[in-house]
Amino acid sequence: MPSHPHIATSEWTLDYPPFFAWFEYILSHVAKYFDQEMLNVHNLNYSSSRTLLFQRFSVIFMDVLFVYAVRECCKCIDGKKVGKELTEKPKFILSVLLLWNFGLLIVDHIHFQYNGFLFGLMLLSIARLFQKRHMEGAFLFAVLLHFKHIYLYVAPAYGVYLLRSYCFTANKPDGSIRWKSFSFVRLISLGLVVFLVSALSLGPFLALNQLPQVFSRLFPFKRGLCHAYWAPNFWALYNALDKVLSVIGLKLKFLDPNNIPKASMTSGLVQQFQHTVLPSVTPLATLICTLIAILPSIFCLWFKPQGPRGFLRCLTLCALSSFMFGWHVHEKAILLAILPMSLLSVGKAGDASIFLILTTTGHYSLFPLLFTAPGLPIKILLMLLFTIYSISSLKTLFRRSFTLVAQAGVQWHDLS
Amino acid sequence: MEKWHLMAIVVLIGLTVRWTVSLNSYSGAGKPPMFGDYEAQRHWQEITFNLPVKQWYFNSSDNNLQYWGLDYPPLTAYHSLLCAYVAKFINPDWIALHTSRGYESQAHKLFMRTTVLIADLLIYIPAVVLYCCCLKEISTKKKIANALCILLYPGLILIDYGHFQNIYNSVSLGFALWGVLGVSCDCDLLGSLAFCLAINYKQMELYHALPFFCFLLGKCFKKGLRGKGFVLLVKLACIVVASFVLCWLPFFTEREQTLQVLRRLFPVDRGLFEDKVANIWCSFNVFLKIKDILPRHIQLIMSFCFTFLSLLPACIKLILQPSSKGFKFTLVSCALSFFLFSFQVHEKSILLVSLPVCLVLSEIPFMSTWFLLVSTFSMLPLLLKDELLMPSVVTTMAFFIACVTSFSIFEKTSEEELQLKSFSISVRKYLPCFTFLSRIIQYLFLISVITMVLLTLMTVTLDPPQKLPDLFSVLVCFVSCLNFLFFLVYFNIIIMWDSKGGRNQKKIS
């Protein structure tokens, strides 16, 4: 077990933090009741019907946590007085939007991963923050980070919000910070929680002096700016522009064909390469771009905190910014922005329209994940189902609210 | 939410379930030399495309009738021809004469599945949607829930998309449904045209022919046989004759052609029953081997008599008092009588009974749901043969949950809801203490469901004893047959004790 991060026997070696490794370890113990063969280290690309059955069932089983988290989130939603029918309540709409989320279905159950329960952990920590149980929320998020480090994308939002709204216990009447209300105790307790969780996860590897190896597996900067399938982010546009410019340059004889490297960015392989016309992008550059992108929302969260709803907005923006400017981003990372946005969408009409645009394009960008011919009708049907439902239900929800508000002649304001 | 959006979502859910079920294996996958009925469909495309019409139903060197010969009416053959043209456009190897026997590939499987989905989408699903929209006296939400439950009915999905035996059942059932729709909404001519198409697609639809005939005859009588009724009768006769002539045109040229087609459609020398089917004769065979004792023609006469005796009361009532509600219930009881007592019945003929039961789902949700569950269960041996355990369990549970939430069936078990009020009133004239009918029925439901679940578990986990290798299939058939007999009695009671065509029934909300 301790030697796991060391082995580079195949292309699918462990590249998630230690908690996930322990999770897989527990799974492997259950797996031996299903099929012994799949646990053989040298049995790469092994698949039998029983293996498939076991893995699919394990995903479905772990989704129980996701269902629980959705339930907790629905409790935090303000039940509006409009609409007596069950299917028109915001809680119902939110639970359908989360549980039947097309992206999650495709990625988890068809493409196969364990994102369900990880998103469950994130939604649960958000729900705890809404319910003012900040310590639990922080603890859950720390655990989540050690399951899958992609959640570092949204860590700034958590950090700033907890610092600002939890460590500073009171605000001045105009909403700005009251320095005297700083609670040292709370800060220490938060720090302790994070430290303990990290110690639990990284401790064994620290003791074995394998920390550098773990980090190099977790943050593989050698993998290149873009994944094999380009995530639809800013660097994809950047690459495309570079390609176009190089083609034009070749035609107009500005560039020497001998100087252009033969490796193409679209070859579908994961590798590092240089840009031809535009300056090459380094990991540091992407980090700076990301930081610049999340700065406005962080500032807002610090100077004008609007409670948990403001935190949620900041979280979504952090996820989106990291998606747009991050290094080696996967397409699936768009789910990190879509799922929290679902929580916002049932609150305000403006959020709902943004959500619809985000979710439709985000889900459409996940299409290349299912490339087999039988998968084509499935992804089209499921996409249509989700899109029609989300547009129709959100439209009905907010049309009613608008009509009621217009009739009452009341100023429309946020119910947070 | 707007009605059309909800309906679109329901249709999409139906399509998604169908396509995901179709991703499973099919009957006869990789099993030479005969393969399964998937191969039959492919072979029919080969035959109809390559041979002239006159040779389709005849045994010849090119067309070996023992190897999946055509045994459905001409419309199926035309449909196969159409699919063959599409197949030729994509890959001619699939239908090349002789050389394409046993052709199996991912692309071909996809093609066949797609043809089924398209046929379903064009014929069956619009009929269901239109039927649910035309239902009277129920709210929009209930109509849409009704459509969802009908589209989720597991039996049809598993047979058409999972089992692949005699696929395109949805086409013939869809045509029959268009027929019911037309006749119920007073477009009698279009309705009978649609039903004639259904019969010409699969001859099993003849199970439904008698109620159609009686209902239309009853309507003609009601309109007065001297005036409008007679005109209607003549028009209907013309439509029926014209549609049959149109479909059978190539085969009417010679007497031998017509006879040969009829011989292929009605193979009377196959015996009283084949395989294990939830039929009276098969269940009776457990105790007394009538299949071997009685000669063939006696068996024929016996089944004929029993069938007609059991369906006569309902049909006579329908002629005398034609009503839309009576028509639907008569469809159920007629088809059920045929299923239980007729000659050479296949397990999947239960689908012919399930369709009319789906139509009365909104009127007696509790009994209909129970019946539809039993009908899926009765096909268990067939589904297990094709390794469809997981899809059948999942679809059955989905269907059950959909029905329970849409209709809250467990609250609708009073006598009035079960439409047994008039019956129990009549019985109480002789037996004053007969008040516990609904409770009996609830207990029966519980026993039935528990038995079905137990039998399913036993069939899947245990091995049958050496001396009785078919033990579990026979048990399944026997239990289903008992259930069906109960339903036969129940539906007949409803029909006979129904007064004034149900117009004084309480409004069902």
Describe, in short, the structure shown.
Chain B: Pathway: Protein modification; protein glycosylation. The complex is a heterodimer of chains A (416) and B (509). Chain A is mainly alpha-helical.
Overall helicity of chain A: 55-70%
How much strand of chain B?
Answer: under 5%
Oligomeric state of the chains present here: heterodimer
Radius of gyration of chain A: 23 Å
Give the overall pLDDT of chain B as a whole number. Answer: 84
Straight-line distance between termini of chain B? 19 Å
Order of helices and strands of chain A: HHHHHHHHHHHHHHH
Number of strands of chain A: 0
Mean pLDDT figure of chain A: 79
Shape, per Cα inertia axes of chain B: globular
Distinct helical segment count of chain A: 15
Number of domains of chain A: 1
Spans of at least 5 consecutive residues with low confidence of chain A: 1-12, 409-416
Pathway (chain A): Protein modification; protein glycosylation
Membrane topology (chain A): Multi-pass membrane protein
Protein name (chain A): Alpha-1,3-glucosyltransferase
GO molecular function (chain A): dolichyl pyrophosphate Glc1Man9GlcNAc2 alpha-1,3-glucosyltransferase activity
Secondary structure: elements and pairs:
The complex is a heterodimer of chains A (416) and B (509).
Chain A: H1 18-31, H2 49-76, H3 90-99, H4 102-110, H5 115-130, H6 134-147, H7 155-167, H8 184-207, H9 211-218, H10 234-251, H11 283-303, H12 307-325, H13 335-345, H14 349-365, H15 375-408
Helix pairs in contact in A: 2-3, 2-5, 5-6, 6-8, 7-12, 11-12, 12-13, 13-14, 14-15
Chain B: H1 3-22, H2 37-50, H3 74-90, H4 106-133, H5 140-151, H6 154-163, H7 169-184, H8 188-201, H9 209-222, H10 228-248, H11 255-265, H12 280-287, H13 290-293, H14 296-320, H15 324-341, H16 350-359, H17 365-378, H18 380-385, H19 389-407, H20 421-430, H21 437-461, H22 471-496
